[in-house]
Write a structure and sequence with these properties.
Keywords: Cytoplasm, Molybdenum cofactor biosynthesis. By secondary structure, the chain is an alpha/beta fold. The protein has six helices and twelve strands. The strands form three sheets. It has a six-stranded mixed sheet with strand order 8-7-9-10-11-12, with helices on both faces. A four-stranded mixed sheet has the order 4-3-6-5, with helices on one face. The protein has a two-stranded antiparallel sheet with strand order 1-2.
């Protein structure tokens, strides 16, 4: 627990037309560890994540899956005392949660045999407040987030999510080996701080925006999502239906606008 990066000695290979050179050099890598999440005694999810901020992560995950709407509904969160590693110490990789009134969802969900399930819709408990951000603000946010990515600058191996206000100020940043986990840590933090539904804000992510990431933003009442990468068709459809601002390929002074409008001045 608490190991976010790990230092290794690795062979560095340089290939030239004449010869291949190999030498050993230090490398700092991002740690990825498993986490079993149990809800009311039953296994709910098995994921991998960057250790740290696990409590925020599970709050955000349970919010996105509709198991909780308030932080107080997660009454207890504790690491399983019996989950020990080779050193006979707690691995902190099994988390037991007591959720008031929750019936855990299956680990794997299956649709009807041979049928096509309809596009799911986030079951939010509030309307999204539509925003019209300034285009200049949007193009500046990825670089602002990049400056605050401490783990990434050490390892080049993690994704990030940041929450910004409409003036372009980043108020919260989280990093993880998985982009969805970073978003869960953002929304979980907001839930624990009783800041949901979130006042007009923009979620900035460094990975492709899928339906799952868009759903997490919607469940937290976040009005805008932007990424330096691509967005999926389901993410676009969901954003348009929910009234969420969505922009992709935010690079340099350009971006693709998939949902919502921008202020030109």
């Amino acid at each position: 627990m608490g190991r976010i990066t790990q230092k290794l000695q690795v062979p560095r290979v340089v290939a030239t037309p004449a010869e291949v050179f190999i030498n050993t050099r230090p490398d700092t890598i991002a740690v990825e560890e498993p986490l079993d999440i149990r809800v009311n005694g039953s296994l709910f999810r098995s994921i991998t994540r960057t250790p740290g901020q696990d409590i925020e992560l599970v709050h955000g995950l349970l919010l996105a899956e509709g198991l909780i709407k308030k932080a107080t509904e997660l009454s207890t969160a504790r690491y399983c005392a019996g989950a020990v590693g080779p050193d006979n110490k707690n691995s902190y990789n099994v988390l037991d949660l007591d959720v008031l009134g929750a019936q855990p969802l299956p680990l794997l969900n299956s649709g009807p045999s041979c049928g096509v399930s309809p596009t799911p819709k986030p079951q939010t408990q509030w309307a999204i407040t539509s925003i019209t951000p300034n285009a200049e603000t949007i193009v500046q946010l990825p670089e602002k987030l990049n400056e605050l990515r401490k783990i990434f600058h050490k390892t080049k191996g993690v994704e990030a999510a940041g929450l910004a206000d409409l003036d372009g100020e980043l108020t919260l940043v989280r990093e993880d080996i998985q982009a969805e986990n970073a978003v869960n840590k953002i929304t979980g933090h907001l839930l624990m701080e009783r800041r949901i539904p979130q006042s007009p804000a923009i979620l900035v992510v460094t990975e492709k925006v899928t339906y799952e990431i868009l759903k997490k933003a919607a469940m937290a009442g976040i009005a805008g999502v932007i990424t330096t990468e691509s967005v999926s068709s389901m993410a676009i459809e969901t954003a348009q239906e929910a009234g969420i601002f969505l922009a992709g390929f935010v690079q340099g002074n350009k971006f693709n606008l998939y949902s919502g409008e921008v202020a030109k001045n």
